[in-house]
């Protein structure tokens, strides 16, 4: 199963959640990253209730150490990353840098 990390998932009406839902519907295991852990857990549970594959993960793009922890967790649990959805800019760049080798196969 392909694995996607979608950052910035805070509520059902946001564009990140719509993209996460689309990827999950296409057969990806979706990691929902949000600085609000409760929101990621709720949205992940909703996707799983629909038979889709999702995992919540606390992710604050402003925190370099936190990005590194997420990268390590993704590597440990999944060993791969096939898609990354994150707004560009300094925060997106921080996450891309932390994910490093996992992103080799992911188009920019």
Throw out a few tags for this protein.
108 residues; alpha/beta; Rossmann fold; 4-stranded parallel beta sheet; 4 helices
Any overview of this molecule?
By secondary structure, this protein is of the alpha/beta class. Strands 3-2-1-4 form a four-stranded parallel sheet, sandwiched between helices. The longest helix is centred in the middle third of the chain and has 15 residues, at 64-78. The chain contains four helices and four strands. It has a single domain, classed as Rossmann fold (3-Layer(aba) Sandwich). The model has no long low-confidence stretch (mean pLDDT 87). The chain is 45% helix and 18% strand. Helix 3 crosses helix 4.
Strand order of the largest sheet: 3-2-1-4
Main pleated sheet: 4 strands, parallel
Count the DSSP helices.
4
- Percentage of helical residues? 40-55%
